[in-house]
Amino acid sequence: MQYHIQEATFDLPPGSFIDRSVNVLVFGDPAMPFSVVITRDYFEEDGSVEQLLREQIKALSTSGKHFKQLEFGTTHLPLHAPAGEPSRSPGAGEAPNAAGAYVTYTRQGRPIHQKIVLAELPARRALVVTGTYAGAWKDEHLAHWASVMHSLRLRT
C-alpha cells in the first residue's frame, strides 16, 4: 500500500495497521494560536461517526471545568458551498456522513472553544478535524475554519 503525506509517498508492508497520524496546523500568533488538528479514529462495526463524536464529547467533558456543548449536528460532506456561505442540504439519497459539535470548557483557567467534525471514511474509519482557540473565536478563526470545512474533500 502506498501512504501519502504532503511531503512524500512511501510503501507500507502488507498487512493491517492502524493509522494514528496527526496533522497540526497553527494560524496566527504562536503565543495564542488558533489550531486545526487532523487525526484519525475508528468506530465500532454497528456504530457511526455521530456515536463516536458523542463518545469523544463525553470524554472531553471531564477534561476541563465548565464544559458546555453549544452545538451538535450531522451533515453530508462535501458541503458544496463557498466559504462563508450556508452549506447545501444533502441531496436525495445522501445520508449524513459527518457529525460536528461546538464545545467550550475551561482548562488551567483559560476558556477553550472547540469545533469538532468527524467525517466517515470506508472501513469504519473517521477523519477528525478539530479547531481550537483559547477564547471566543474571532472572525479570522471562523474564516480559517470555513475555508477548511468548505474545501474538505474526502478520499474514499
Folded structure, characterized:
- There is one protein chain.
- By secondary structure, the chain is of the alpha+beta class.
- The chain has a domain at 34-79 and 98-156: Protein Transport Mog1p, Chain A.
- Helices cover 16% and strands 40% of the residues.
- It is built from two helices and eight strands; from the N terminus they run ββββαββββα.
- It has helices spanning 49-60, 139-151, and strands spanning 2-4, 9-11, 23-27, 34-42, 65-75, 98-107, 110-121, 125-133.
- The chain has a six-stranded antiparallel sheet with strand order 3-4-8-7-6-5, with helices on both faces.
- Strand 7 (110-121) and strand 8 form a beta hairpin.
- The radius of gyration is 16 Å and the shape is globular.
- The mean pLDDT is 88.
- This is DUF1795 domain-containing protein.
- Pfam families: DcrB.
Task: List the helices and strands in order.
Answer: EEEEHEEEEH
Query: In what range is the share of β-strand residues?
Result: 35-45%
Describe the biggest sheet?
6 strands, antiparallel
Query: What are the segments in which pLDDT stays under 50 over at least 5 consecutive residues?
Result: none
Protein structure class: alpha+beta
Question: So what's the overall shape?
Answer: globular
What is the CATH architecture assignment of the domain at 34-79 and 98-156?
A: 3-Layer(aba) Sandwich
Q: What would you give as the CATH superfamily of the domain at 34-79 and 98-156?
A: Mog1/PsbP, alpha/beta/alpha sandwich
CATH class of the domain at 34-79 and 98-156: Alpha Beta
By CATH, the topology of the domain at 34-79 and 98-156 is Protein Transport Mog1p, Chain A
Number of helices: 2
Chain-averaged pLDDT: 88
Strand order of the largest sheet: 3-4-8-7-6-5
Give helix % range: 10-25%
> How far is the first residue's CA from the last residue's CA?
15 Å
